[in-house]
Amino acid sequence: MTGQLREFSASSNGDRWFLGRDEGTMNGYVVHKANQPSGGANTQIEIGAFLNRTPIGAPEHQALLRMIGTLVEGAT
After folding, report:
1. Residue 70, by phi and psi: left (phi above 0), alpha (psi -120 to 50) or beta?
2. pTM for the whole structure
């Protein structure tokens, strides 16, 4: 996990989710930073896998889709 991360969601229990990009491949990924009581581990997840495994409607799922939408707004 290198490069810049942009936070897109945080839960009330302290979990946080970030969007990142591998500077070598330019592929995006999600980083989940677990809260301290859960061990505080960082997990890197491919964007497609994150969207497929996160329940539709979960706050972090919706937040990532909103962030992706903002990236498209200025692209045309």
Report:
1. alpha
2. 0.84
